[in-house]
Amino acid sequence: MTTNQQEFDRARGAMPGGVNSPVRAFGSVAETPRFFVSASGPYVTDVEGREYVDLVGSWGPAILGHAHPAVVKAVQDAAGRGLGFGASTPGETELAELIAARVTRDGSHPVERVRLVSTGTEATMTAIRLARGATGRDLVVKFAGHYHGHSDGLLAEAGSGVATLAMPGSAGVPAAIAAQTLVIPYNDLGAVREVFAARGDEIAAVIVEAAPANMGIVPPAHGFNAALADIAHAHGALLILDEVLTGFRVGPAGWYGIDPVPFAPDLITFGKVVGGGLPLAAIGGPAALMELLAPLGPVYQAGTLSGNPLAVAAGRATLDHLDSAAYARLDAASTAIAEAAASALSAAGVTHVLQRSGNLFSIQFAAEAPTDYDTVKAQQAFRYPPFFRSMLAQGVSLPPSVFEAWFVSASHDDEAVSRIVAALPAAARAAAE
Ligand code: PLP
């Protein structure tokens, strides 16, 4: 048996930082990353044979819990029929139809056509290319602290790992490309109006996380998404709603289905849950826009593994099992964990706020609820690493960054929740020091 430390030392000799995605290196929590060998339901097991209750959930896809038997079986069956054909399969159409049917509200159907890709990064990148192709304009508006994947134009003031590493953007992005993205503060309609007043006829699209979850949870102000859609449309620009994280998680129709004020996005991006744990993401929108994509239209996009049959099988099985009972379990477990975390921190005298968007939540170490990236960054983030390390030592695996949501699954039953709840008081005391 090797130790996590031995695995990490070896990994660092083989891969930059020992990881294939930066936050996994545990740098911001000053801990040795755990190397996992198996997972089942709400639990993950590391190379040392230690089991943890998992609140990372593969960063979102594991919404039914790890290795859900129906998802595993669907993937095994698909694998037995062939790993990929580089040609169309009936399953792709079925998944596209499932996505279109679920994303509805009051009879609206914003998704008439779907293109399957492999990652959320590709989904947002393609949505932007499509918006540019449709409008003949170049500029994109994004919000500080929002994360839309790692394509060149979207890394400016990005959330998630870019925020965790406190990077303003990324080296290697040409200035000419960065200049095509206008970054403004979130939840600030004045800033939106200003940027459109100044450059409205050059803006192809605004891209927004439906309910931001990559700077911790920062709920949209009441009616923010609706106002954003109105302003963009008044200037002939599109609204790209990024539901890579929220899609099929906060409800069957994603944030689109539960925003207190209904609104009309033009393109919606999906990822994580829709691939059921395998690499799959999607872009959806009205036929008139989506059919600008090749082969019908002039906007090129393609992928060797797009619509891969294993990923499609995992996505379909996951959506099939996300019924109202699964959402009820997920919502109840989220509420129990969130409230227990908040009350443990209160009992330890730690200043914090519990931020929630539907069943997504995170804790922020601030007196007032942060509303944008600046107020998120002003919190006492130094309290998170000791909190995280205490939870880990007690067998609970949290996201290794204060800027991430806690991912609960429908498999977090009473036993898993009570293990988390039992670990919280000591972690809260560690955060108080
Ligand atoms: N958009 C949002 C809102 C995300 O949370 C993420 C990933 O965390 C992405 C896009 C990028 O997805 P991927 O990591 O699959 O490229």
What is the element layout, followed by pairings?
Layout: H1 4-12, E1 36-40, E2 43-46, E3 51-54, H2 69-80, H3 90-102, E4 113-117, H4 120-135, E5 139-143, H5 161-164, H6 175-178, E6 181-184, H7 189-199, E7 203-209, H8 224-234, E8 238-243, H9 254-258, E9 267-270, E10 281-285, H10 287-290, H11 309-321, H12 324-347, E11 353-357, E12 360-364, H13 373-377, H14 384-393, E13 396-397, H15 414-432
Parallel strand pairs: 3-13, 5-6, 5-7, 7-8, 8-9
Antiparallel strand pairs: 1-2, 2-3, 4-10, 9-10, 11-12
Helix pairs in contact: 2-11, 3-11, 7-8, 12-15, 14-15
The structure holds pyridoxal-5'-phosphate.
Report what the structure shows.
It contains 15 helices and 13 strands. The chain folds into two domains: 4-63 and 323-432, Aspartate Aminotransferase, domain 1, CATH 3.90.1150.10; 70-321, Type I PLP-dependent aspartate aminotransferase-like (Major domain) (Aspartate Aminotransferase, domain 2). It has a seven-stranded mixed beta sheet with strand order 4-10-9-8-7-5-6, sandwiched between helices. A four-stranded mixed beta sheet has the order 1-2-3-13. The protein has a two-stranded antiparallel sheet with strand order 11-12. The longest helix is centred in the C-terminal third of the chain and has 24 residues, at 324-347. Helix content is 37%, strand content 14%. The chain has 433 residues and is an alpha/beta fold. Helix 2 (69-80) runs antiparallel to helix 11 (309-321), helix 12 (324-347) packs parallel to helix 15 and helix 14 (384-393) packs across helix 15 (414-432). Pyridoxal-5'-phosphate (PLP) binds at residues 59, 119-121, 124, 147-149, 160, 209, 214, 242, 244-245, 271, 281. Residues 59, 119-121, 124, 147-149, 160, 209, 214, 242, 244-245, 271, 281 line the site of pyridoxal-5'-phosphate.
